[in-house]
Amino acid sequence: MEINQYLEELFVNDTSLLERVIKRLENNQMPQISIDLAAGEMLEWFIRMQQPKRALEIGALGGYSGSLICRSMGPDGRLSSLELKQEYADVAKETLEVEGYRDQVQYYVGPALDTMATLASSQETFDLIFIDADKQQYEQYLDAAVRIAEPGALIFADNVLRRNKVLNSEDTSQQNLNMRAFNQKVATHSGLDSFLFPVGDGVAVARVR
What InterPro entries does the annotation carry (predicted)? Predict the structure, then answer.
């Protein structure tokens, strides 16, 4: 039995949220690249344990991760969601409205690094940051996240195993090289305590010192 299937059978009791998001993605002809069920469950577990109040996500897509974050933070939590494409932000917004989290989220449309620079200049800070966007820019997202993270904040990055392609050192594709470089950076960053969890498609979790 594949490890993620085993984890989902043991720990995931409700798949209805993802099913609703998948249907909305299909209706809008959007890619099915939401965070895996097992990885989403782990994300929620960390959030419930950490109890953050100000979260940032890089990549909204259909609103699945945003819903998980808001649900886990509770009604006092606030989410800033960064999305490059207006049409994706609209779908994510619809999802969070339907799921009852409309008043907890604010969307920023445009290049995430530009928005993060604006947030930094406004002295905005966050105690949870979730990265799930353009894999080519993961290292830059990490640098920008550290600048706006509070001490003790958690930073998550999804898809860091690339379906185990990062294990193949002979794969010299640009995406593989970029992700291997990101994993090395998050593992050795002097300002972070980090680990890579082989759940879903791999989730790197770092705590800001």
Answer: Cation-dep_OMT (IPR050362), SAM-dependent_MTases_sf (IPR029063), SAM_O-MeTrfase (IPR002935)
How many domains does the chain divide into? 1
CATH code of the domain covering residue 41: 3.40.50.150
Could you tell me if 56 and 128 are in contact, meaning their C-beta atoms sit under 8 angstroms apart? yes
* Single-letter residue type at 158: D
Residue 115 near residue 108, CB atoms below 8 Å: yes
66-100 pLDDT, tens digit each? 999 999 999 999 999 999 999 999 999 999 999 99
Q: Residue 150: count other Cβ atoms within 10 Å of its Cβ.
A: 14
Amino acid at 135: K
Residues forming a β-bridge with 105: 79
CA dihedral over 10, 133, 116, 95, signed as positive or negative: negative
- Regarding pTM above 0.85, the answer is yes
Quickly tell me which residue has 């002979």 as its tokens.
170
CA-CA distance, 176 to 156, in Å (whole number)?
19
